[in-house]
Amino acid sequence: MKAIVDIYLKQGVLDPQGKAVHHALHSLGFNEVTDVRVGKQIVLQLDESDEEKATQRVKEMCETLLANTVIEDYKIEIVK
Amino acid sequence: MNVAIIRFPGTNCEFDTDYAFNLLGCKNSIVWHKKVSLPKNTDLVVIPGGFSYGDYLRSGAIARFSPIMQAVKEFAAKGGYVLGICNGFQILLESHLLPGAMKRNENLHFISKYQHLKVINCNNRFLSKLKKGDILNIPIAHAEGNYYIDDDGLKSLYDNEQVLLQYCDKDGNYENPNGSVNAIAGICNREKNVFGLMPHPERACEKILGSEDGIKMIEGFVN
After folding, report:
1. What residues of chain B have any CB closer than 8 angstroms to a CB in chain A?
2. What is the ipTM metric for this complex?
3. Smallest Cα–Cα separation from B91: which of B51, B141, B38, B43?
4. Which among A16, A52, B76, B165 is least buried, having the fewest CB atoms inside 10 angstroms?
5. Cβ <8 Å between A65 and B65
6. Do B108 and A16 touch (CB under 8 A)?
7. What is the rounded distance in angstroms from the CA atom of residue B214 to the CA atom of residue B212?
8. pLDDT per residue over B166-218, tens digit each?
9. Residue B186 class from Cβ within 10 Å (0-12 exposed, 13-18 middle, 19+ buried)?
């Protein structure tokens, strides 16, 4: 089983990378872009067949290490 | 005075820190992060600057789980004094020994330069040798020094005199090199025994280095 974790800065927390990319896109003429958020994706291979258990474990991993919940939100997707 | 300087894989300011505290007559020991206890009679723990674990994932995120950090947490909980400089500050934030979090500098650059700082509160041992409003000139060198805390957290920092240092220009006017909330450069915990700051006082401890302001700051911790 595979878990895909997406981590982004929380809405309302200024994202310096997103802002820089947004600015660069505008400079290149992509003016329809109204906002950019840059995050990271962590892909975990898990030795676990129970989807619910896997989700719970990955949630623990996010809360403990993978995300800093003071400034970041995370989203877990389980792929079989 | 016995100072324990913690070294993680990637720490690179342990010898500068050792040198600076030596100037003040301290007995220092450099402690490998795999140790589970601090040296006996430790009066002060310093987590120096560098790039613990290569700053992978987030600065300080992995160092937080090194065995020695449990001992540091227990030491702090008993009122022991803990100082985190630069990466050390980031580790203290990730360890929840200090509130808030660090983001990448607003301009996304690694900033390395002398920077003026203003003393906002000196009602604590750390800055006891300084006066409120004093301006210091101390180097900064970081890519992730953009301190963030939410509005409630910020209010509580000010209410409890936990904001110790803000970036400023040479005349004390507002200047913000990295985008930190309220240009914050250093804070302490509510109990005032854990301090974290992005600037490097150990790099400003002799005239030949361009400033002695750092030693003035460190003196407060030693006495």
Report:
1. 57-58, 61-62, 65, 94, 100-101, 103-108, 146, 148-149, 179
2. 0.84
3. B51
4. A52
5. yes
6. yes
7. 5
8. 999 999 999 999 999 999 999 999 999 999 999 999 999 999 999 999 999 99
9. buried
